[in-house]
Amino acid sequence: AFPADDPNRGQVLSILGMQLHDRSWQADGHADIDEAVSCLTESVASTPADSPNRSGRLSNLVIVLRARSEQTGSLADLDEAVRVGREAVATTPADDPNPGAAPHNLANALHARYRQTGSPSDLNEGVSLLTEAVTRMPADHADLANQMASLAFILVSRFEETGAQADLDLAVEIGKAALAATPPGHADRSEEHTSELQSHHD
Predict the structure, then answer these.
(1) DSSP output for 17-46
(2) How confident is the model at residue 193, as a pLDDT?
(3) Which of 39, 42, 79, 85 is nearest to 62 (CA)?
(4) CB-side exposure of 183: number of CA atoms within 13 Å?
(5) Distance CA 147, CA 117 (A)
(6) Which segments of the chain have a pLDDT < 70?
(7) How many Cα atoms within 13 Å fall on the side-chain side of residue 27?
(8) Are 116 and 70 in contact (CB under 8 A)?
(9) Pair 93, 52: CB distance under 8 Å
(10) Backbone region of residue 163 per phi and psi (left: phi > 0; alpha: psi in -120 to 50; beta: other values)
């Protein structure tokens, strides 16, 4: 058995949790996604509050909670994903090499909860999170196009909710910029953007 006091336990649990998440999308994956949530929950619990890895492990927990909600329809999982995601954003180190991952995953959870509850405040928070993430990312960051596409995606949802033409116009503008930032031949150019997940594999 892996020692409970081993300093690498949180890392191992986080990686295992994401592997289980990936496998859970296969047939009858409910047991895997439940175990993934347990692994990530324990991973976070075993990670010190001041650890630079804590934000990434929290963000991974957001991913698996949202995935379980998609499989089961649980609103409670989405509520927990949003709570955990806010902590992940708040604890992201200033020098994190992928600073947009936590806001991106939280925005995904907020958007998923909006689809269940219809709460406009979740859309507004998601737009704010992704707008700030895009604004703060360097122009040459490898993930900038993905962040921009996610922002465009949620802006379209808000347009559909409110009818605000400005949101649709901005979504088109940002979508074009995201496309321009995506190299020809890149897989993301050939697929409709569906707000992909971003995980931190320690």
Answers:
(1) HHHHHHHHTSTT-HHHHHHHHHHHHHHHHT
(2) 41
(3) 85
(4) 6
(5) 24
(6) 1-4, 27, 183-202
(7) 0
(8) no
(9) yes
(10) left
